[in-house]
Amino acid sequence: MMKDKEPSTTGTCAACRRTFEFDPQSVSTVLIDPDTGLPPGMTVLATLRQATPEAVARSTDEPICPQCVTRAQQFQAESASTPTWDTWP
Ligand SMILES: [Zn+2]
Q1: For residue 54, what pLDDT band results from cuts at 50, 70 and 90?
Q2: Are 11 and 20 in contact (CB under 8 A)?
Q3: In terms of pTM, does the model score above 0.85?
């Protein structure tokens, strides 16, 4: 099947820090707290804590690469009740 859209933007994956090209219209994003480099509510040990309103407010949507999207989806499917990302790099 032909793809009719070319990736048009280069960015850094919020999860693995790999530089990749993406289409900003369709790229998957994740909310990242700039203080920790992790989603609000997650610690560096990948354990969950209460996300503070301040952490959510300062967080921004960062693109994540297709590899990490796939890994996250697989991991969520395997452990739907415990959404920790401790298998990420
Ligand atoms: Zn990635």
Answers
A1: very high
A2: yes
A3: no
| Centre of ligand 1 from the C-alpha of residue 10, in Å | 13
| Span from the CA of 71 to the centroid of ligand 1 (angstroms) | 9
Classify residue 3 by burial, with Cβ atoms within 10 Å: 0-12, 13-18, 19+. Answer: exposed
In this structure, how many other beta carbons lie within 10 angstroms of the beta carbon of residue 68?
21
> 35, 28, 11, 24: which is closest to 67 by C-alpha?
28
User: Distance between terminal CA atoms of the chain?
Assistant: 32
The values of phi and psi at residue 52, to 5°, are: -80, 150
40 touches 53 (CB < 8 A) = no
**Ligand 1 centroid – CA 35 distance (Å):** 19
